[in-house]
Specification:
Blueprint (H helix, E strand, L loop, with lengths): L2 E3 L3 H11 L4 E3 L11 H16 L3 E10 L6 E2 L2 H4 L4 H7 L6 E11 L4 E12 L15 E3 L11 H7 L1 H15 L8
Parallel strand pairs: 1-2, 1-3
Antiparallel strand pairs: 3-4, 3-5, 5-6, 6-7
Helix pairs in contact: 1-6
């Protein structure tokens, strides 16, 4: 069984639903490099987790990139959220709200390491909206949608999210390479 290294129950549930498979969940205390790039962060977390567990696993990292801030905060969103969602929204002028959300899922095993990136364009809402149940979902409006991620149902979000795109690519890879993750 493939192991998802995460302490986030929402991400784990979302991954199981999107992949349509059972995953094992393990939470590890891992150092996280400081980078705007979710791919760099995800790769380093995967390497560190594999050194501890020595079995096929996946990790993921997600970032929010605000174009008018030159892509900041990117993978550093957790620290940026400390100022509060209201403040983030109020910092941006109306013509500076375009953004994108990006997820990188890294798969690693004894013989392989692959990254799968999903990206969705959108904008930062003028104020937080929706149930605050998952990070910055209350401030991100995906392109073509008048709702924030937090205003969408779980199934609606899972159909269009950046995590969906990244996990979809992972699923295609695993379907084509089943022996890379099955325990011997």
């Amino acid at each position: 069984m493939l192991t998802f290294v995460t302490g986030n129950e929402s991400k784990f549930r979302e991954a199981c639903q999107i992949l349509g498979m059972r995953l094992a969940k393990t939470s590890l205390k891992l150092s996280e490099i400081q980078s705007l790039s979710v791919e760099e962060v995800s790769i380093e977390k995967a390497r560190a987790a594999f050194l501890k567990l020595r079995k096929p696993l996946i990790v993921e990292d997600t970032g929010l990139y605000i174009n008018s801030l030159n892509g900041f905060p990117g993978a550093l969103i957790r620290w940026f959220e400390l100022v509060g969602h209201e403040k983030i929204c109020s910092l941006l002028p109306e013509d500076g709200r375009s953004a994108y959300a990006e997820t990188c899922v890294t798969f690693i095993s004894e013989n392989a390491m692959e990254t799968f990136v999903g990206r969705i364009n959108g904008r930062i809402a003028s104020s937080p909206r929706g149930a605050h149940n998952f990070g910055w979902d209350v401030i991100f409006e995906p392109e073509g949608c008048d709702s924030t991620f937090a205003e969408l149902s779980e199934s609606e979000k899972n159909k269009i999210s950046m995590r969906r795109l990244a996990l979809g690519k992972l699923k295609d890879y695993l379907d084509s390479n089943p022996n890379t993750y099955r325990s011997i």
